[in-house]
Amino acid sequence: MANLDFYRRAIGVNTVDELSDAICASLLKTNRTYDFWVDWDKANRNSNEYKYQLGLLATLKGSDTPRKDLERLLRRYPEVAEAFPRLLAEHENQLTVLSRQSHPFKYIDLDFSTRDRSSADIRQLATFAEKTGLLEMLSNVAQPQDYLFGVEVGLDSNARKNRSGVVLESLVSDAVDALARVNKGVVCLKQPILNQAAKTFDVECPSSMSARRLDFALLRRGVPTNIEVNFYGGTGSKPSEIVGAYCDRARILKEHGRRFVWVTDGPGWLKMRNPLRVGVEGIDYVLNYQMLHDGLLARILLQG
Q1: What DSSP state is assigned to residue 35?
Q2: CA 102 to CA 105: how far, in whole Å?
Q3: Higher-confidence residue: 183 or 72?
Q4: Dihedral, CA atoms, 136, 137, 143, 148, nearest 10 degrees?
Q5: Which terminus has fewer CB within 10 Å in the chain: N or C?
Q6: What whole-number distance in Å separates Cα of residue 206 and Cα of residue 57?
Q7: Cα–Cα distance between 236 and 196 in angstroms, integer?
Q8: 3-state class of 46 per DSSP?
Q9: What's the half-sphere exposure (Cβ side, CA atoms, 13 Å) at 176?
């Protein structure tokens, strides 16, 4: 249940609706910093990992008999196949392909990491390169490593969701670190498993949550506090699920004499006010980044 006494003193709101409105009125428009879009170092590192194989595959450019030349490469330099999955934006080194779609189905298992291959294996790999379009690409591209670098940049876009969450989490981490520096009695753990945090803090652990990983666990004057952080730039069903789970967690932790603080932000909440209100009503402390910046987290942790 929202600790309205605290919010009345801290920001002058008296009801759950007023608190929900206050949170929505000061949400971050975005958390996309300059390094949000591409991790260039990662893309360079991953493409350089295959530069030897790609140098060999570059010899296929302009070949009149690309399949024959590829089979020759695979016999002399079996390691070139290690680059195949990555060139197709695939992380796995072992793939299963559905090669015949009519019953009975036929599957082919391919291992791109092994270097002990029979002639049949080499033909199979060449067929894979041919039918996936990889062979045609290699016979028309002068610098396969540049191509792979582009693939890696594309793959890195999948990591943006993780980077989105990390930005707000790092802001909270900075605030917690600053608090611990000036208040020697504050002990902070980052990304701990709950039962490990309980052992470190020498407190009892709620059995139903013992295996949960927390964003932050803090201890001051014998009172543990769990802080969870997330950011929503858009809408979806997951926020409602998160709200329900966090309300349950807040209740369980409160029954065991612990505190739960939810730090959340993002313009997505402007279109999801109902689930946000449910969270505000069911959790003692819900903050956005502006409230964190204004010192409300410190006031929560240092009270009592």
Answers
A1: T
A2: 6
A3: 72
A4: -140
A5: C
A6: 57
A7: 33
A8: helix
A9: 24
Q: What is the dihedral of CA 155, 63, 71, 54, to 10 degrees?
A: -30
> In angstroms, how far apart are the furthest CA atoms of the chain?
80
Residues 224 and 197 sit within 8 Å (Cβ to Cβ) = yes
Least confident of 97-101, 161-165, 199-203, 220-224: 161-165
| C-beta separation of 179 from 299 below 8 A | no
CA distance 79 to 51: 12
* Ordered domains of the chain (ranges, CATH): 4-34+159-302 (3.40.91), 40-158 (no CATH)
- Quote the pLDDT of residue 165: 67
The rounded distance, in Å, linking the Cα atoms of 66 and 73 is 10
Amino acid identity, residue 126?
A
Tokens 């900075």, residue located: 174
Give the amino acid at 301: L
Residue 99 Cα distances to 103, 110, 121, angstroms: 11, 12, 15
**Helix (H), strand (E) counts: the chain:** 15, 7
